[in-house]
Amino acid sequence: MIRVAYLGPAGTFSEDALRAAAGDAPVEPLPAPTIYDAITAVDEGEVERALVPFENSIEGSVRATLDALAFDAPTVTIVGEHDHAITNSLIARRPLELEQIEVVISHPQASAQCARFIRAELPHAEVRAAPSTADAVREVATGDRPWAALGGAVAAGIYDCVVLREGVEDAAANITRFVWLAPAGTEPRGAGPWKTTLSFSELGADHPGALVEALTEFSSREVNLTRIESRPLRRGLGRYMFFIDLEGADSERPVAEAIEALRGKAESVRLLGSYPLRTGGIPGT
Asked: With a threshold of 0.85, does the pTM exceed it?
């Protein structure tokens, strides 16, 4: 049985995604208190896999995941992904009118996905952060104040709460892309097209157009980039690390040549994973 870490506790969207992504594969789900802990559990050999959120269609990238992969988990690789639909609900310990709610609490990603609803319907409520959506529901369940949480309806059932409103996210097509993580050296298997994710930093020729020149290594070889994002390099203002997704496997000649050329332009290039987009069950098993 494969041990899989995910952002817990019971009732999170990560747990829902794991159940859907694993299918009939036998897994031992191990809830982690934070995304960082789920990722480093793979890095330290405590589990064989982790499934963590990577980006959301409303709020964008999950910074905790990017930063942990970039700075804290050098022996972890992405071996697959899973897109999961997210429906946020407003949850309380007991039935409440919206104007009674003093505090709305959730994971920052969920709060950001529901920002418009909060501004329009809960302008008087204080917004607070929780380690996960299920932690938020659990805190509301054990308190006696008129607080509400943003989370999944499943969590409301687990912690004996009630759903006040369902589907309060800012856009109906609310999808989170989760990634499967495994120890470095794990060979992903699956059908369909492949995707490669990598990071790079500190372009050697720091001049106007340096980033464009670096990315031209891909376009000149007709390698399609599907995503690019920057994160602070943690070495002072104005210094960044870039994350990119591209179509194709790192074993394909144009992709391999482009990555090698990028190594000649950047101080650091790290292949975060090259993996098929369609996998059944747990990738690499």
From this structure: yes
